[in-house]
């Protein structure tokens, strides 16, 4: 197993401190704040550790303060309700005595019912798209030094955007849609909860960027202040996060220095397994 995937699994393996209390650490990679997907994934791990016999079907989180990667995050789980079919938990991430993240999560006993879904769009398969190694050769000279250092490191999740020009290079204002394939770079353990947490981790990547396509902007623009404000995720069907998943994203609206972004996640066979919604800060600074 690669060191990047091993580190990701280590980050998601929280240390139990006391009943309903867990501690998570952050990778020491030089970022000024903790990656939002990490906090979502760790909070989901904390909630799931207090639930048996039921699977996560939705979570709703709010980013309250920037996370400090230099110190651990304490996750406190409140057992709101254990019903006949559904279990509800609230998780608060704490640093320096203050809440940095708050999340509600709901778990359900598996049931059968009516089924329908949107169709997956027709896109090239991931094997016909440039790999991350190819993208580094094409775009590494364009990115800021801090981002370059991040790309040069081994990463646990690989992304392959369907439209490279739209994703990285265009300054043309376009409709805010993008499709991105992603998966863990190594095989993961078979535990379904690990795959759910890895998907939660990855779902915070690329989504906020979708709104910038409408303005001909990118995450590398120095006059933009970008941050996730909230994050909601729904799970529908089983999947593996170490097999290719298509992240179909759009941004219906932006305004008030905020953008609204949505995503549907499909297996390569076209099965819709999860949906994501996020509001983000896109503040233009002088």
Description:
With 286 residues, the protein is an alpha+beta fold. It contains 7 helices and 12 strands. The protein has helices at residues 3-12, 36-48, 132-139, 145-152, 164-169, 192-202, 209-212, and strands at 15-18, 21-24, 55-63, 73-82, 86-95, 98-108, 157-161, 177-184, 224-235, 245-255, 258-267, 272-284. It has a 12-stranded antiparallel sheet with strand order 1-2-4-5-6-3-9-12-11-10-8-7. Helix 2 (36-48) packs antiparallel against helix 6 (192-202). The longest helix has 13 residues, at 36-48. The relative contact order is 0.15.
- Overall shape: it is globular
Compute the number of strand runs. 12
Question: In which order are the strands of the major sheet placed?
Answer: 1-2-4-5-6-3-9-12-11-10-8-7
Distance between the termini: 45 Å
Q: What's the tally of helices? A: 7
Task: Furnish the topology, listing elements before pairings.
Layout: H1 3-12, E1 15-18, E2 21-24, H2 36-48, E3 55-63, E4 73-82, E5 86-95, E6 98-108, H3 132-139, H4 145-152, E7 157-161, H5 164-169, E8 177-184, H6 192-202, H7 209-212, E9 224-235, E10 245-255, E11 258-267, E12 272-284
Antiparallel strand pairs: 1-2, 2-4, 3-6, 3-9, 4-5, 5-6, 7-8, 8-10, 9-12, 10-11, 11-12
């Amino acid at each position: 197993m690669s060191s990047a995937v091993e580190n990701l699994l280590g980050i998601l393996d929280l240390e139990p401190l006391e009943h309903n209390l867990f501690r998570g650490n952050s990778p020491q990679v030089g970022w000024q704040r903790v990656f939002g997907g990490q906090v979502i994934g760790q909070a989901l791990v904390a909630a799931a550790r207090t639930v048996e016999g039921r699977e996560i079907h939705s979570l709703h989180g709010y980013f309250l303060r920037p996370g400090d990667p230099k110190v651990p995050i304490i996750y406190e789980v409140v057992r709101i309700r254990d019903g006949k079919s559904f279990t509800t938990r609230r998780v608060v991430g704490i640093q320096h005595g203050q809440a940095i993240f708050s999340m509600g999560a709901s778990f359900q006993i598996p049931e059968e019912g009516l089924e329908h879904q949107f169709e997956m769009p027709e896109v090239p398969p991931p094997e016909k798209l440039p790999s991350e190694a190819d993208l580094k050769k094409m775009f590494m000279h364009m990115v800021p030094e801090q981002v370059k250092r991040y790309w040069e490191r081994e990463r646990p999740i690989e992304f392959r955007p369907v439209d490279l020009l739209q994703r990285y290079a265009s300054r043309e204002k376009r409709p805010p849609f993008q499709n991105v394939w992603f998966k863990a770079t190594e095989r993961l353990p078979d535990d379904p909860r690990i795959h759910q947490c890895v998907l939660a981790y990855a779902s915070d990547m690329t989504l906020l960027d979708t709104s910038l396509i409408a303005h001909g902007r990118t995450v590398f623009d120095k006059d933009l202040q970008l941050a996730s404000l909230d994050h909601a995720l729904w799970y529908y069907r089983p999947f593996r996060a170490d097999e290719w998943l298509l992240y179909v994203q759009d941004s219906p609206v932006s305004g008030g220095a905020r953008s609204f972004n949505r995503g549907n996640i499909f297996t390569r066979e076209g099965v819709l397994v999860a949906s994501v919604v996020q509001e983000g800060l896109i503040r233009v600074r002088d």
